[in-house]
Write a structure and sequence with these properties.
By secondary structure, the protein is mainly alpha-helical. The protein contains three helices and no strands.
Length: 71
Amino acid sequence: MVRRSISDARKKDTREKIELGGLIVKAGLRYEKRALLLGLLIDAANRMRADDNERLRLMAIGAAAFGDDRA
């Protein structure tokens, strides 16, 4: 039972990582260097923490991008 639980957790973790990688591809950043990607994410996280409006602005951009898929 414990072994199955660990296996399920690993599968869930792997799936989340694949989905997150898909976001990088969707954003058009597939071929960028990892340091740049991490810098972008850290910068965005800092800006969101400092300004709730920035979080809303970025959320709107992301929602619009996902909306394009479902059209």
